[in-house]
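Note to self: keep these together.
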Amino acid sequence: MAKYELIIKGGTVVDPSQSIHERQDVAFSYGKVAAVEPDISDNLANEIVDATDAIVTPGLIDLHVHVYWGVGHYGIEADPTQVAKGVTTAVDAGSAGAWTFPAFRRYVMERSATRLYALLNISSMGMISPKIGELEDLRWADVEDATSVGRANPDHILGIKVRLSQPLTANHDIDSLKRAIEAAEELGKFVMIHVGNSFTPMHELVGMLRPGDVVTHAYHGSAHGAMDDSGRVYDGIVEAQKRGVVFDIGHGRGSFSFASAEKALAQNFLPDNISSDLHIYNIEGPVHDQLSTLSKFLHLGLSLDEVIRLSTSATAKTIGHADEIGTLKPGAEGDATVMRVSEGKFTFVDSLDATVEGSRELEHVATVRGGKLYKPYLW
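Structure:
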């Protein structure tokens, strides 16, 4: 009997959680990372993945997706868009509310090869209709309902999501946020707020957040963003980041601007996390997948190690699972992503349809989930 079930051979391991960036082999056994060493014999494994000329990272984590297919109007299927594209763990950001979560858990979360967590929408209906905002009527922001479902599903629900754009909350975004924070505090969880075109300026909303809470769409480029009319990042945004509020990208269809990102980065307002906000309205562009989103930040000047960190160890820390995922430390969950850094000319598009030409793109090669090579026809 072989010592290991699988070995990834010959790749350059990039694991920011351990400050590793060097040629290493990675072995898996019993669903866990078993060893990371310079040369592990092929004879010790049942299966070999050849990662020559490729990068091997901890399994990517996407903090913001929408995978409630058939119920949430943003929904896409999880496995073809996540684990099949290198994302081993994904967080559905508010597709389900208290009244729609039980089916999401049973029919999506528990049946997917992708490890799925959820942020429960403070709106009990969740994100059902493209025509009716889930918080236009504040009665949907039911703290009792949210906390009841959160307590019943502590291992599946990481926190509370609230979307604060005017078409979704009208003019009561502050009251909606207060209720989201109240529910999160009762559960001992974090809040993620969606910003952009809000009734209340972003820096005022962010001022209400606690350390560990998350702002998604940090570089959205719409009204009431992170910067004033002169392009200067608001002091309140800088102060919030310093006290531990997490600023996430959440690319999406309308929530990422190259121009805003470039201005923010020039002022050292860096993202704390990179997520795709992948859903049905952007999967064919401009987002495509998480690796495409990470590639855009290579173009913007972040290093490969930093880009990987912002979708592995940093994300795992944000969601409270740093010892289990986002790392290739022996004993951690046996998740890994094999990718290639392709050189050439690549066109990247933001949410405002602005284009830039990049010279590097991250290309998916293979995914290991739970110590097994992901093969959709066998899973």
